[in-house]
Amino acid sequence: MDNIFDSNNLYPGYDNPLKEYFKDYFDSVFICFSPFFKLKNGTEEYTSLQQAKVISLEELQKNNDAFKNLDPNVERVIYTNNNSSYPQVEEIIDNGTPIKWQYVLEHTPLKNFSEINLALCTSIGALGRDFRRIDLQQKLNAFAVSNSIYYPTEGRITALSLIRIYNCLKTMGKVDLVITDEFFQDRKVINLITLPCVEFVLLVRGYMYFFPIDRTLLFTIEWDSFYFLICGNQVLLDEIIPKFEFEGFFSSNETIHNWYSNEEI
């Protein structure tokens, strides 16, 4: 395979063991959870605890002409992330307090991290009929409602995680960062010295792949994911994971993208 950085192959196929895929570049892969969060200064304005919400076919067609000829289907559930009742990114940056998955695990009937992820994926319609777990979603939702805890968003590294990435890279002196969009059409180098943290988050939050120009780390995410990968050498990851409070687990030789499907982790 061509160099993953130059050929834009920055996330493995779903059936590829993660460590095997990255072995020519990194010896360790950390699966990092996108944190839940609370708002420090009230929640009255933001009544939706998750960004994804269900809309009707009529609403979809009204807002997007590309779907104007889509036929009705009683089994189809349509989701949108255009939700003004969910905290905006600026509000999360200013007032968000991260909540770990471990805290959720300790305060819900959910058994493990796999069940948390299955509940989150079910909440956005990301799983097929045979895999969705409405029971887990209901347990997670009950906890979130009673504690005013917001779900993370999917498919992009969230604002609270980007803050940690910024602090990590700047502390390590890795200030020249390559950022790439999902279609590999917009790739640029930014310098963290010239960017305050808030400006950094607002600039890069739509991108999916990040690595310093020395290619010693890679932060990468996939569609519909509530977690992202931190790839690097073990010694380096052993230093930055606890220091910057990234939460998750290290991949084994067998771990794949859909690690949660065995419901054991």
Keywords:
2 domains; 7-stranded antiparallel β-sheet; alpha+beta; 11 strands; 9 helices; 265 residues
Write the layout of secondary structure elements.
Blueprint: H1 18-22, E1 28-33, E2 36-39, E3 53-55, H2 57-63, E4 78-80, H3 89-95, E5 96-99, H4 101-106, H5 113-123, H6 134-147, H7 159-172, E6 176-180, E7 187-191, H8 197-204, E8 209-212, E9 218-220, E10 227-232, H9 234-243, E11 248-250
Antiparallel strand pairs: 1-10, 1-11, 2-5, 3-4, 6-7, 6-8, 8-9, 9-10
Pfam families: DUF2711 (PF10924)
What does the model show?
The chain has 265 residues and is of the alpha+beta class. It has helices at residues 18-22, 57-63, 89-95, 101-106, 113-123, 134-147, 159-172, 197-204, 234-243, and strands at 28-33, 36-39, 53-55, 78-80, 96-99, 176-180, 187-191, 209-212, 218-220, 227-232, 248-250. The chain has two domains: 18-34 and 155-262, no CATH class; 38-147, no CATH class. 31% of the residues lie in helices and 17% in strands. A seven-stranded antiparallel beta sheet has the order 7-6-8-9-10-1-11. A two-stranded antiparallel sheet has the order 2-5. InterPro entries: DUF2711.
